Every structure is written in structure tokens, then in C-alpha cells.
């Protein structure tokens, strides 16, 4: 089976990729763009492949199919970034934790609540079990190189804290009481889990970089639930450790951090983790972020996915406000959280036109 793009997606050569320049700290205008969850159920062509795959994990571990859905939003919209199609929970899965995606229920894991559960995690198996995901990176990069050499391939992982939330809780939650409780009741145990995740995530991201990922993103969706002292310990410190290790081997690979709902701690996160770009959530005021985050650190975000569902004048007004606040900065236009499955695909095309006009 062939995985590819048609030539009109734009052939170019060299390292002149707008997204890589922007996430590395250069102000590019109009800003490059991509959307979190841009490959997904709002696209009929995704639903078609998803139905054939027979399960979400199967889709993530079948390289031809995963590469195909990674490329779909590039073909349809000409985004500047392609994000590897996978999931943050594939790292616990690769360490041997039971995982399934139940229809309409989200992810379900065999929860880890004690020392034996943490000790049973198979860190040394991650590269082997996740090999199909690295193959997806290779296939996608080859397809992008051949036909659309302006598109950057973004690899990703979940941040240790957010992944630990799911591993301990066993499922999605509004508050992750069990996981956050463990961080207070047994910080030594929670710390061992976080350290295991730091090691697994570093290795997993290194393998993606070796396979051809050109930028790496760390998703910390639940970071904003933590009080400041816990945020420093479980979000900033582990992220800084991962970034330091990645930069030792790949000094120039740009890293994007997404500390969702970090609020006023966004500046400290930017300064202390060493990420090249900080992704803003929907609640972040871009003007505040611009003042709190050092000028050489890029920003990404942060349109509300609901404005994208609304479309029309509401979408246009929101998008233009963000563009106005970010002009002159290293910036990548994106959503402030993942695209929703009820999003009309034509609204994404409208957003692309607005952003390409530069506001
Ligand atoms: O296009 C992309 O952005 C790349 C792929 C990607 C997925 N998940 C695919 C996916 C990425 C980067 C993620 C990240 C992810 N996964 C996060 C962090 C970002 C965020 O949204 O806060 C989290 C917390 C997860 C865990 C997860 N995966 C949940 C809670 C769910 C269920 C919710 C849902 O929308 O069904 C998933 C499933 C999932 N991951 C889907 C996709 C496209 C839907 C699966 C399907 O097709 O049935």
C-alpha cells in the first residue's frame, strides 16, 4: 500500500520550514499553523480508515494506516505541521500496562496503585513494543520529504504527570482524585512512577527523533490541577529532566511544552523547563503569555475549539484577536485544546484562510 501526498501539496527543498523556524524561536508571519487532534473523527476519511483498522490501538500500531491518517489533514488543508498519529497512553501500553479504548467511554487502563504495580512496568520493552509507532514516523517523514518538503513532522508524548494520572486512576476523570491523592499520601511511590515515566518518555522521544521526527511535543493536559509546589515538583522538574536529556543528544531539535491550565505559572514553566515553545490553553490570555514568557521562547495556540465549531463571524473575530496579540513574536497558530469530533470540516478551511491572511 502506498502512503503519499499528491505533488501539488507543495514541493520545496531545504530546511526552510516555517513551523520549525517558528517553534525554534523565530517570528514568522503569517504564522505557521496546525491543529491539535487534526487527524480525527471530524474527518470522513479518518472514520473510514478507523473503521477498517478494527480498534484504536490497532490503528496506532499499523504503520501504513497511522501514516495515512497523519497525512490526511495535510492533504486536505495544507497544514504546516503533521503530528504523528498515536496517543499519549501508548507509553504505558508499551511498558505492559493493560489498555483499551472502549467505544464512547475513552481510555481504560488496569490501574497501578502500589509498589508492585510500579515495579512491574517494563521500561526495557518500550522500544520493541513501540517499534510500529517509530515505523509510522519513518513512513510519514518519507512521504512528506518526497512531496511536500515544507511540512514539519511533529513527534509527541504525554508528560509524566498527565500519563501518571491515567495510569493510577485507570480512566479519564474530572479531578483525578486517586492519582493526586497518591502524590500527597505516598510521594515516594508517586515519585518512582514519575521517574519511570521520565526514563520511558525520554527513550520513546529519542526513538521518534531518530526515526525522523523534526520537533517534539509534550502534552501535560492535567498540569493545571496542581498547586504551585506540586506543579514545580511533578510538572516542571520532570519536564526539565526530559528536555535536558533530549538536548544532550539532539541539541537542535525544538521541543514544545503544553502545560494545560498552568495559568500564572506559564512563565516559570517556560524559563525552567528549557522548552523552545510553550503551547497555550484556551483559558490563557495571549497578551499575558507574551509578557510572562521570554521573547526568545515561542508561543503556540490557542483558539477555543468551540469557536471552530461555531465558524463564521465568531470564529473570525476570535482568530483575529489571537493573531493581533501574537504579531511580532515567534508563534504557531493552533487550538487551545484538541479539535472536537462535531467540528464541520469546512470551518477548518475557513480558519486556514484567516490565518494565512495574517489577520
Ligand atoms: O492529531 C493529533 O493530534 C495526533 C494524535 C493524538 C491523539 N491523542 C489521537 C487520539 C494526540 C496528540 C493525542 C493526545 C492525547 N491523548 C492527550 C493529550 C491532549 C489532550 O487532549 O488533552 C490525552 C489526554 C489523550 C488520552 C486520550 N486518547 C483520551 C482521553 C481519549 C478519548 C477521548 C476521545 O476523544 O475519544 C483518547 C482517544 C484518541 N486519541 C482519539 C484520537 C484521534 C479518538 C479515538 C477514536 O478514533 O476513537
From TrEMBL:
Domain of life, source organism: Bacteria
Assigned keywords, A-Z: Cytoplasm, Decarboxylase, Lyase, Porphyrin biosynthesis
Pathway field: Porphyrin-containing compound metabolism; protoporphyrin-IX biosynthesis; coproporphyrinogen-III from 5-aminolevulinate: step 4/4
Residues the UniProt record annotates as site (Transition state stabilizer): 87
Catalytic activity annotation: uroporphyrinogen III + 4 H(+) = coproporphyrinogen III + 4 CO2
A single cellular component GO annotation: cytosol
Principal place of residence: cytoplasm
Protein location: Cytoplasm
Pfam families for the chain: URO-D (PF01208)
Alphabetical GO biological process terms: protoporphyrinogen IX biosynthetic process from glutamate
Binding site for substrate: 37-41, 87, 166, 221, 337
Signal peptide coordinates: none
InterPro entries noted in UniProt: UROD/MetE-like_sf, Uroporphyrinogen_deCO2ase_HemE, Uroporphyrinogen_deCOase
Any one GO molecular function term: uroporphyrinogen decarboxylase activity
All residue ranges annotated as the Uroporphyrinogen decarboxylase (URO-D) domain in the record: 32-41, 154-170
Enzyme Commission number, as recorded: 4.1.1.37
Subunit organization: Homodimer.
Similarity comment: family membership: Belongs to the uroporphyrinogen decarboxylase family.
Function, in words: Catalyzes the decarboxylation of four acetate groups of uroporphyrinogen-III to yield coproporphyrinogen-III.
Protein name: Uroporphyrinogen decarboxylase
Annotated organism of origin: Falsiroseomonas algicola
Taxonomic placement: Bacteria, Pseudomonadati, Pseudomonadota, Alphaproteobacteria, Acetobacterales
